[in-house]
Amino acid sequence: MKEIRNNAAKLMSGFCRVCPVCNGRACVGEVPGMGGLGSGAAFADNVAALAELKFNMRTIHDASEADTRVELLGRTLALPLLAAPIGGVSFNMGGGISEEAYIGAVIGGCRAKGILGCGGDGVPEFIHKSAFAAIAAAGGDGIPFIKPWEDEELFAKIEGAKASGATILGMDIDAAGLITLRRMGRPVSPKPLEKLAEIIRRCGLRFILKGVMTPDEAELAASAGADAIVVSNHGGRVLDHCPGTARVLPDIAARVKGRVALLVDGGVRSGGDILKMLALGADAVMIGRPFSVAAVGGLQQGVERYIDTLDGELRQAMVLTGTRSAAQVDPGILFNARR
Fold first, then answer.
1. Cβ contact 64:319 at 8 Å
2. How do residues 124-182 score in pLDDT, each as one tens digit?
3. What structural domains and CATH numbers belong to the chain?
4. Residue 154: what are its φ and ψ, rounded to 5°?
5. CB neighbours (10 Å) of residue 69?
6. Do the beta carbons of residue 2 and residue 85 sit within 8 Å?
7. Is the pTM of this model over 0.90?
8. Cβ pair 244, 49 in contact under 8 A
């Protein structure tokens, strides 16, 4: 991983510093780029909220073999992990590799390790086209994400996503108002409940709504027919001063867990962070920026090596908290956890 990260730092020079801890401090306001919007407070709080959580270490038990498998949207995942949808290599990551090579590495590496990678969307069009092609090449093993465009573009892209063979489709509604798209003359917008329900009905695939940060909107997503939601503030890239996702996840889980699959992203940097999010109520997590570093620095081999690293960290954290299964995580593994 050190070689992969060093290579990524060269290829992403001026766009990502590949910091030892990816916490948003060095890239404040760098949008486009890999930073957080404005003061970078939302990006930083994603990381800080997780760092504040501590484990209760337990070693007097017989849970010596950790089962990291989870069921999600009709799929069995080897880890409770997905690679989050990120695109725009040329203007966010330095252009050291092509969009096609990047998303191919993410989708292919995730498939090889028994998890799912997500494809991004945006401007120029080769972002979503490259994602669709990579998912098709992987036999439909990937999740295309589409931004909340207006009808003509939105439904055309949904049809393109379905043609890739994917069985799950996502919308990153948290991209509404994204500054990079607005600068390109292609603004995206929020969707009222009735419109969202229509989109989900017309989609005809299992549907993930990414960008839910409050319990009431989690309820709305469920009522609109979403099969899953992602608790996400878009990596702190769309609205300054959002709370970290780990802060809002427990209240959202209390409202909708069991009714929709519950995913979360934002600041997850290690296998231990994955376990913390599961203890807070998530069924699985998404990771964004570190997957980008792995893909740019080492292509598919880099992605696979990064997943192996997370796997080892997660298993160690599970054993040392007495957690047998990633599908059933006791909130009590967290120090001073709310019960």
1. yes
2. 899 999 999 999 999 999 999 999 998 899 999 999 999 999 999 999 999 987 767 77
3. 70-333 (3.20.20.70)
4. -60, -50
5. 14
6. no
7. yes
8. yes
